[in-house]
């Protein structure tokens, strides 16, 4: 469905692989689905081809994930309105999606017939965030890892030791130890392996 014949304020796009969402939106007279994509690279291409008013971005797409796609789109178009959509409610993933530039974050299970109202709210400039996720995000904020701490932990998750991590990031080995100490404290982890498990479960790592 294209937006020809509709006023500019009514242009919408759905970039989610679930046709169920598209089916709900197709029945809305003021919403036109202008494109769908099944991976993050295609989502970026179609966004810049069509410049939709609102984008629903699945975070669990192949090739290029949703968070990376959001970041890339917002880098070129800071005004892009993107709602992150996922099945996972991990605190870290919520934070990373918002940091990447998402205008909101919703779970697929909470969409249903209310997706049209979410799209309209985002288009009106309001942040779309499920109440339970907003509360969880606020409570979890003190435990969020910095970008560098995530970099260190991601390399640890790949099996690298402190020396290898230091070489990879171009920092001192003692600095790596300091970052890991902060990570263990923030995540209340007993050791580095436990920290990786916690971070993966919370969606803090790719």
TrEMBL record:
<dbReference type="InterPro" id="IPR001789">
    <property type="entry name" value="Sig_transdc_resp-reg_receiver"/>
</dbReference>
<dbReference type="GO" id="GO:0006355">
    <property type="term" value="P:regulation of DNA-templated transcription"/>
</dbReference>
<dbReference type="InterPro" id="IPR016032">
    <property type="entry name" value="Sig_transdc_resp-reg_C-effctor"/>
</dbReference>
<dbReference type="GO" id="GO:0003677">
    <property type="term" value="F:DNA binding"/>
</dbReference>
<dbReference type="Pfam" id="PF00196">
    <property type="entry name" value="GerE"/>
</dbReference>
<dbReference type="InterPro" id="IPR058245">
    <property type="entry name" value="NreC/VraR/RcsB-like_REC"/>
</dbReference>
<dbReference type="InterPro" id="IPR011006">
    <property type="entry name" value="CheY-like_superfamily"/>
</dbReference>
<dbReference type="GO" id="GO:0000160">
    <property type="term" value="P:phosphorelay signal transduction system"/>
</dbReference>
<feature type="modified residue" description="4-aspartylphosphate">
    <location>
        <position position="58"/>
    </location>
</feature>
<protein>
    <submittedName>
        <fullName>Response regulator transcription factor</fullName>
    </submittedName>
</protein>
<keyword id="KW-0238">DNA-binding</keyword>
<feature type="domain" description="HTH luxR-type">
    <location>
        <begin position="138"/>
        <end position="203"/>
    </location>
</feature>
<dbReference type="InterPro" id="IPR039420">
    <property type="entry name" value="WalR-like"/>
</dbReference>
<dbReference type="InterPro" id="IPR000792">
    <property type="entry name" value="Tscrpt_reg_LuxR_C"/>
</dbReference>
<dbReference type="Pfam" id="PF00072">
    <property type="entry name" value="Response_reg"/>
</dbReference>
<feature type="domain" description="Response regulatory">
    <location>
        <begin position="7"/>
        <end position="123"/>
    </location>
</feature>
<keyword id="KW-0597">Phosphoprotein</keyword>
């Amino acid at each position: 469905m294209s937006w020809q014949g509709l006023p500019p304020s009514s242009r919408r796009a759905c970039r989610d692989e679930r046709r169920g969402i598209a089916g709900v939106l197709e029945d809305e007279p003021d919403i036109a689905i202008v494109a769908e994509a099944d991976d993050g690279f295609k989502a970026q291409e179609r966004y810049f081809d069509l410049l939709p008013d609102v984008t629903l971005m699945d975070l669990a797409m192949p090739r290029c994930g949703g968070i990376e796609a959001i970041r890339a789109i917002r880098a070129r178009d800071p005004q892009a309105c993107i709602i992150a959509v996922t099945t996972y409610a991990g605190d870290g993933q919520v934070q990373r999606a918002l940091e990447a530039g998402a205008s909101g974050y919703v779970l697929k299970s909470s969409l249903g017939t209310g997706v049209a109202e979410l799209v309209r709210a985002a288009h009106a400039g309001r942040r779309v965030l499920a109440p339970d996720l907003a509360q969880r995000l606020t409570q979890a904020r003190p435990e969020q890892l910095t970008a560098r701490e995530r970099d260190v932990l991601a390399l640890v998750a790949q099996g690298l030791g402190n020396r290898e991590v230091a070489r990879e990031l171009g920092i001192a080995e003692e600095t790596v130890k300091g970052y890991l100490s902060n990570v263990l404290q923030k995540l209340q982890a007993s050791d580095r392996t436990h920290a990786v498990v916690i971070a993966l479960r919370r969606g803090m790592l790719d």
